[in-house]
């Protein structure tokens, strides 16, 4: 069955435009942001930028002490001592019986800062990695905030920092959750969603849970998005600790990770806004938004494939 997106829902998703994505990516990956290392004044500015988007969406703060920010210590040899921010907000669910359950959208807002110059450029802008995913997170929050009726379950939006230091922000959230971990029914991660072929996106977590099946079906049902989906060539039976879904899936949360693949500018000065395909990033974000809505409105909790769960849900992240 083909379902061409129409009606009030898709009018909201139409707010996730290439222009919106390009504006956010350009702001976060501007040279003045010096690569958004954790910790740094620039990652603090980034957190304020994301928080402003959450406020525009009228999300409920879900950080520390009634704020949007959750702080965590940065104590790794490769970084100066300090703290880093996560920015956390909730779109409350409409169904009293399910509003205490959550689907999560996560994207990391940090990058690797300034390094050795390459052709005179020392700033690792991190436009694709991961201003693109952070732009998607903000655009989705503002779009879903206007959906009527609201999703049955609550949607938890988490912009992490410290991902490039070893998933610090995501690990901290899982160890110090601001909602009960066992109330999280599924997770979508956006990390590097704006490069390579315009018609495809990888799904890390392919075949590991019902989330994978759901996204594959939605991509087929919505040809207007112009996206084919396939397994992430870097994924393995045991998921590597390579992005912010990992601490959550390690604790049993079914997940999918949208990723558009590697490129030569990874962690280099060439990862600049002009090289991101904002149109593709907007379409990936729309597919992620449709997935979140279906996860939030589904009748039951999402299930792992038993064999995949046995390999991936172990120990402490």
| Rounded Rg | 18 Å
For CATH, the homologous superfamily is named as Zn peptidases
Please state roughly what percent of the residues sit in beta strands, choosing from under 5%, 5-15%, 15-25%, 25-35%, 35-45% or over 45%: 15-25%
Number of strands: 11
Fold topology:
Layout: H1 8-13, H2 18-28, H3 41-56, E1 60-61, E2 69-74, E3 82-91, E4 102-108, E5 114-118, E6 121-123, H4 127-144, E7 154-160, H5 168-175, E8 184-190, E9 200-204, H6 210-221, E10 228-231, H7 246-250, E11 255-259, H8 278-297, H9 306-312
Parallel strand pairs: 4-7, 4-8, 8-11, 9-10
Antiparallel strand pairs: 1-3, 2-3, 3-7, 5-6, 9-11
Helix pairs in contact: 2-4, 2-8, 3-4, 4-8, 6-8
Outline the structure in words.
The chain contains nine helices and eleven strands. The mean pLDDT is 95. The protein starts with 7 loop residues before the first helix and ends in a 5-residue tail after the last helix. Strands 1, 2, 3, 4, 7, 8, 9, 10 and 11 form a nine-stranded mixed beta sheet that branches. Strands 5-6 form a two-stranded antiparallel ribbon. It is an alpha/beta fold. It has one domain: Zn peptidases (Aminopeptidase, 3-Layer(aba) Sandwich). Helix 3 packs parallel to helix 4, helix 4 crosses helix 8 and helix 6 crosses helix 8.
Report a brief summary of the structure.
The chain has 317 residues and is an alpha/beta fold.
Jot down its keywords.
single chain; 317 residues; alpha/beta; Aminopeptidase; nine-stranded mixed sheet; two-stranded antiparallel sheet; 9 helices; 32% helix
